Amino acid sequence: MNLFEFRNLLKSEDRKEKRKGFLRSLIKSVETGANGTQDYVVKKGPGKDKVASTRQ
User: Fold this and answer.
1) Interval 16-27: pLDDT, tens
2) CA separation for the pair 24, 16 (Å, rounded)
3) Where are the domains of the chain?
4) Stretch 26-46: mean pLDDT, rounded?
5) Are 49 and 39 contacting, i.e. CB atoms less than 8 angstroms apart?
6) Each residue of 41-55: pLDDT tens digit?
7) Whether 16 contacts 9, CB under 8 Å
8) How many angstroms from the chain centroid is the CA of residue 36?
């Protein structure tokens, strides 16, 4: 491997790392359970507006 190939290899690795970092910055974390997405709320009946448990 000559010096030219080595420099090109280093440049391509740098470009890959920059691209990965940029893509990571675009990913936004989400909040679990936001807007009632985690638990089911009973809509009708005697237990109305209560969070249903997984056991029945």
Assistant:
1) 999 998 888 888
2) 12
3) 3-30
4) 74
5) no
6) 788 888 888 887 765
7) no
8) 19
